[in-house]
Automatic annotation (TrEMBL):
<feature type="binding site">
    <location>
        <position position="111"/>
    </location>
    <ligand>
        <name>Zn(2+)</name>
    </ligand>
</feature>
<feature type="transmembrane region" description="Helical">
    <location>
        <begin position="57"/>
        <end position="82"/>
    </location>
</feature>
<feature type="binding site">
    <location>
        <position position="238"/>
    </location>
    <ligand>
        <name>Zn(2+)</name>
    </ligand>
</feature>
<feature type="transmembrane region" description="Helical">
    <location>
        <begin position="204"/>
        <end position="224"/>
    </location>
</feature>
<dbReference type="Pfam" id="PF05875">
    <property type="entry name" value="Ceramidase"/>
</dbReference>
<dbReference type="GO" id="GO:0046872">
    <property type="term" value="F:metal ion binding"/>
</dbReference>
<keyword id="KW-0812">Transmembrane</keyword>
<dbReference type="GO" id="GO:0016811">
    <property type="term" value="F:hydrolase activity, acting on carbon-nitrogen (but not peptide) bonds, in linear amides"/>
</dbReference>
<feature type="binding site">
    <location>
        <position position="53"/>
    </location>
    <ligand>
        <name>Ca(2+)</name>
    </ligand>
</feature>
<keyword id="KW-0378">Hydrolase</keyword>
<feature type="transmembrane region" description="Helical">
    <location>
        <begin position="150"/>
        <end position="169"/>
    </location>
</feature>
<feature type="transmembrane region" description="Helical">
    <location>
        <begin position="175"/>
        <end position="192"/>
    </location>
</feature>
<keyword id="KW-0479">Metal-binding</keyword>
<keyword id="KW-0472">Membrane</keyword>
<dbReference type="GO" id="GO:0005789">
    <property type="term" value="C:endoplasmic reticulum membrane"/>
</dbReference>
<feature type="transmembrane region" description="Helical">
    <location>
        <begin position="239"/>
        <end position="259"/>
    </location>
</feature>
<feature type="binding site">
    <location>
        <position position="64"/>
    </location>
    <ligand>
        <name>Ca(2+)</name>
    </ligand>
</feature>
Length: 287
């Protein structure tokens, strides 16, 4: 259990750093690349945010080259998750991996163009993906074959409402998106912690804590990037946010799949791993 303790100490340190940086971001506002006036193939930037990476440095056709490139790792993880779990999990888990593919494509388009429609192609699928994750957790302890018609309609209507609000009213900043997305993440973490306590094993704790540390650590890098852009620009922290959040999300999905195996009293076997979880010993070898 030593690894679990280490992960939780790391998480505690990360959270202690996140809170003041998040408060600073709210109080002062982000310090991103808003003053970067360079234009390229896609013309004037119409997105309501411009990230720290300098624009159109590597090529005339891609505004934020490194951020765009790192977005493709999200696509790759989603495709790998679908391939690895195609015959071993319920459909909703495949939809979750597919949502990562859509988010990655949208993120690439957004960072490549810095256009508002492409920003929506990034942000709205993140909301949709959260909704899929919420449904997974709501149905985690369901018996096979149970239908959740009311819950599906409720989640769908809430997702539609958030999509409309973000599209129509989030024109000058990201506040509505951040509120909608952030509240979803908080629910996912709290519900996952509850499930982990109920179906606790060393493997589930390692998967859960790895996912949490990766996502929180990535968020810390994102906050550093947004608060101290000029000082940290060369570190490409937003690209590292993409990679950390992607690995954290995949680790979270592996955790949910593991718990679902426990609920179904099935042999716990993870068919997909990632660079963040390869070291975790599972009952049947993770590949």
């Amino acid at each position: 259990m030593g690894a679990v303790r280490v992960l939780r100490v790391v998480l505690g340190v990360v959270l202690l750093l996140i809170f003041p940086l998040f408060a600073l971001l709210i109080a002062r506002g982000p310090v991103d690349g808003a003053g970067d006036e360079r234009e390229g193939y896609w013309g004037p930037k119409t997105a309501n945010v411009n990230w720290c990476e300098a624009d159109y440095i590597f090529t005339h056709y891609i505004a934020e080259f490194v951020n765009s490139l790192s977005s493709l790792s999200i696509v790759a993880s989603g495709l790998y998750g679908i391939s690895a779990h195609w015959t071993s999990v319920e459909c909703r888990y495949l939809v979750a991996f597919a949502s990562m593919v859509v988010v990655g494509v949208g993120s690439f388009a957004f960072h490549a163009t810095l256009l508002r429609p492409m920003q929506l192609l990034d942000e709205v699928p993140m909301i949709w993906g959260n909704s899929v994750f919420v449904y997974i957790l709501l149905t985690m302890e369901d018996k096979e074959g149970r239908t959740r018609t009311i819950e599906i309609w409720a989640i769908s209507l809430m997702t539609l409402l958030m999509t409309v609000l973000i599209t129509l009213f989030d024109t000058s900043d990201q506040n509505i998106f951040l509120l909608c997305y952030g509240s979803g993440v908080v629910y996912l973490v709290l519900r996952s912690r509850t499930l982990n306590l109920k179906y606790s094993s060393e493997t589930s704790m390692l998967l859960m804590d790895t996912a949490t540390v990766l996502y929180a650590g990535a968020f810390l890098l994102c906050l550093l990037d947004r608060n101290f852009c000029s000082a940290v620009r060369s570190f490409q922290l937003h690209a590292l946010w993409h990679i950390g959040a992607e690995l954290g999300t995949v680790s979270g999905l592996l955790f949910w799949i593991w718990i679902r195996h426990e609920v179904r009293a099935a042999k716990a076997r993870l068919m997909g791993s990632n660079p963040a979880t390869w070291w975790i010993q599972v009952l049947d070898k993770a590949v």
